[in-house]
Input
Amino acid sequence: MRALLLFLTILVSNLIVAQANLNDYKYIIVPKQFDVFKEVNQYQTSTLVKYLLSERGFSVFYDDSLPADLVSNRCLGLWASLLDDSSMFTTKTSLVLKDCNGAEVFATGEGKSKIKEFKGAYNAAIKDAMKSFNGVVYAYSGKNDGDNSLTLNFKNDVKSLKNKQIAEKLEPKGINTDKVQRKAPKNQNPMVIQEATIENQSYENLEPVPSNVGANNEGVETENMEMLYAQEIPNGYQLVDNTPKVRMKLFKSSTENMYMAQSGDKSGMVYQKDGQWIFEYYEGENLVQKPLNIKF
Output
């Protein structure tokens, strides 16, 4: 009896600690392709993990669809990874959640399945591992929000906006749902179609492959510059070349013809001056102004 009581005490204590740790984080990020697999959403593992975490009250995003405040502050989220210790006759998996510094915050117990078919085996093992969340009641504490600010440069005007304010403007609405179909421009098919339910887990990505902006084109006449085509996304546009590859993303601001821009590791502003679109950003301590040829 004393041994049982001690076991229950330790179990409850661990649940309380785990819950407190998880409450410090606003998001959980699930990769479209876990490291242990060779294909995107292999055996529909990514959609299943996202669904099961969402079902437990967590705010879950895929790693290529991060909300704006998480882009600005990666420490708001926990990053999920799947461990696979399967043998010839038994599929064994566990889920690990790590913070922005790679430190482990939570790990499930090992889920097991003896189903022979791979998809069924991994689905059953993941559901078994998720039982470790039983008894955990999640509620975000706001601990990691902080008071960081993002400084945006436009000409000689420096504007400082808090992350939370930026997030409210930039975060796509309704994207964190179990069934998602992103809005595409008229006369085009949806770029991403995915479903994550107990009955069905599917994912189809029709988006152009991301790439970085090419070499600096300062001083080049517009007619000789590469044409970038604007495709509508929630709260802005993505600019693609004729490959098509995504070259840049533009997010609407409160000022007409001025966008907050992200291109690879470069962040800045895109605005129109004398009929010419300009991408303005800092490279080290140098302010760079790069002309763009955009077709909306």
In short: Residues 2-22 form the longest helix (21 residues).
